[in-house]
Amino acid sequence: MPAMRKALALLVVWAVASGTAQAAGPDDTASPAPEAWAMHGQFTYVEQESDKFNAPYAGANSLSPDRGAETTDATLYVGVRLWPAAELWLTPEVDQGRGLDDTLGLAGFPSAEAYKVGHNQPYLRLPRAFVRASLDLDEPSLKLDPAALQLGGLTSPNRWVFTLGKFGVTDIFDTNQYAHDARNDFLNWTAVDAATFDYAADAWGFTVGAAAEWYQGPWTLRGGWFDLSNVPNSEHLDPGFHEFQWVGEIERRYPWFGQAGRALVTVYDSRGRMGLYSDALALGEATGGTPSTADVRRYRSRLGISLALEQPLNEDLGVFARVGKAAGNVETFEFTDVDRTVSLGGALKGSAWGRGDDMLGLIGIDNGISSVFEQYLAAGGLGVLIGDGRLPHPGAEQIIETYYSVAALSYAHLTFDYQWVKNPAYNTDRGPVSIFAIRVHAQF
User: Around Cβ 325, how many Cβ atoms within 10 Å?
Assistant: First the structure.
């Protein structure tokens, strides 16, 4: 189709530019002198289609059978060292496209490359503009490889790191080497992040704030303060930080059979104007109307916590898991409609069949919501992403996703992705849904 031909043509141009940039790059055998500046880039195209699943009825936020959607984005990462311990990053980006049904219909939405807003024509954004500064606590001995959002050089294993500006909360919190990057690994929203992590963000997933990290031996403590949207699920952040979020995280690194594992506990407290599902139900019953949390919003908190484990088993195989819980009586503010989640998965390099740069991934996800949220949806209420107009038979939304990423070039991958969703939007009357995707990604 025309969109795919356009994507492949852009990939060829990108590959040529990437090859030129690599050929002119520094000698990898040289000593790790601090980079004074750097420029990186990426291009990603995703096309998804759903099958003709069972759908006896639908509402305003329902997923439709037999639909297709595509997204394209290209990002430039520009970093400059301001002084020896600080760097500035700007990431202008061009986006185009929409998710299935305008990114509605599933709590575990199938493409994290699709935002809650979208346009048929390309548009320019600046998702990140931040300064990062480090304070070494002992002799610098840890090598930092050049990468997007990281200048190469040396740092101390024990250090403070401070980040200030516009960036993604999940750039720092709830990270995972196997399931955190929709441009390279899993696509589902609730695979790349803990589904209950209702992190502060605009409709594109970015916010303004500050974070501090303390690295000491096998431990890391992180904390951050971030701006919430002016109203839940908005394109605009609160202009005066009157609605905000605290995030805290503790990380423990440990050796296990010669491999370095990680355990993370992440907590958050969102403070803003949010509605209680019980209040919306009561008002709807009193007025004879459809309940809406927008009618009953008051200043209050929403708390959540998640646990994540990440464990390489050898150089080629790794496993991971996440468990999360969020307050189910308060509406979701930013991310997606999940009050509890459990996920388990793994990733395998293709070394065993002579394709060491290929990657195979598999994850299983079980997402759920509170009983009062079920009642709200049954009465016709709408969530951030879901709402079939009724919910006579609720059930957990269960997802299996698998992908195979082919290293077409050292800097370009072609990925085939399949997702199976039981009880879409927690509705046992609809589905199951099969979603097929192809992803083209290049980076330098």
Answer: 18
